[in-house]
Amino acid sequence: SGSNIIIPCIIHVVYGNSQENISDAQIQSQIDRLNKDYSATNSDYDNTPSEFQSVRSGDTQIRFEIVEIKRYANSRDTWGTNDAVKAAYPPIEPDRILNMWVADIGGGILGYAQFPGGDPATDGVVMSPQYFGDASVSGGSNFYLSAPFDQGRTATHEVGHWLNLRHIWGDGNCSADDFVNDTPVAGNPNYGCPSLGTNSCSGGGNDMFMNYMDYVDDACMFMFSAGQDARMQATFSNGGGREGFLL
Ligand code: ARG
Ligand code: ZN
Ligand code: CA
Question: Which among 56, 58, 61, 64 is positioned nearest to 180, based on CA atoms?
Fold first, then answer.
C-alpha cells in the first residue's frame, strides 16, 4: 500500500583509463539491479530457504532513478576509503539526492558507504567500477565487471548501509547485534556461497548468509528481512536522516 519512495541518483564516474569509464548501459544495469532487489522482483528471490521465507522482506517500495551521470578523467590510480574522491568531486544536494561515486578504491575493496546522520559533504556511496553493474543482463558480458561480484549486489549492500543497515553479523562476535530482530545472530561474515545450515553461533539459529548485508558472492545473496525493511523505512521519518527524500 502507499506509493514508492523515489531516490534520485547522481553517478560520478571518476576514471583513470577507458575501461573504468563505464558505459551508460552498465550504469543503467546497476540501477535496474537496485530496483529489482529493493522491490523483491529479483529472479533469485525464491532461492530464499524455507526457514527464512516468513521473515524475508517483500517490496520495500524504495526505487532509484538516474538524475545525471557525471564523468571526470583523473590520472590518480586508486582512491582508498578516506573520502578523497568526494573531496575532489563533492556531492550534489545530498539531502535529496543519493550521490554514487564509481572510482577505483583499490585494495580489493568493493565499496563503502556513509550511514544516515553523517557529514553532508561526504554523504553517499562509493564503488569500484568493476563491481558496479549487472553482467547478467543482455549485453552485460561486454561490461567492465569482475566475477563473482558482477551482478550489482555491491550497490544493493552499500545502499543498505546508506539506509542505516549494519552487517548481519553486527561487525562482532555472537554477542554483537545488527539491531534487527528477525536476522539471526552471526559471529562472523560468510564468504563465497555457503551451504544451507551454516551456523556461526551455537543456539543462535542458522546464519542468514543469503542476506544482502552479509559478504557472500553476488549470486548467493538475494534478500533483505522484514526487520531490515522496517529499519530502512525509519530513516525516512523525522530524525531518521533521510527525510529529505520524502519531500
Ligand atoms: N565489503 C563491502 C562492504 O562492507 C561490500 C560487500 C558487498 N558484497 C557483495 N557480494 N557484493 O560494504
Ligand atoms: Zn558493508
Ligand atoms: Ca539480528
Answer: 56
- Residue 78 CA to ligand 2 centre (angstroms): 19
The residues assigned a catalytic role are 158
Please tell me the pTM assigned to this model: 0.98
Q: How far apart are CA 165 and CA 137, in angstroms?
A: 27
Residues with CB under 6 A from ligand 1: 110-112, 149, 153-154, 157-158, 215-218, 221
Q: For residue 130, what is the enclosing H or E element?
A: none
| pLDDT value at residue 1 | 58
Length of the chain: 247
Amino acid at 147: A
Q: How far is the CA of 124 from the centre of ligand 3 (A)?
A: 25
Contact 191, 110 (CB under 8 A): no
| 109 alpha-carbon distance from chain centroid | 13
How far apart CA 154 and CA 135 sit, in angstroms, is 13
Which ligand is closest to the CA of 150, given by its number?
1
Residue nearest to atom 4 of ligand 1 (CA): 112
Confidence of residue 238 (pLDDT cuts 50, 70, 90): very high
Please report the atom of ligand 1 found closest to the CA of residue 109.
1
Q: Distance between CA atoms of 105 and 161, rounded to whole angstroms?
A: 17
ipTM of the complex: 0.94
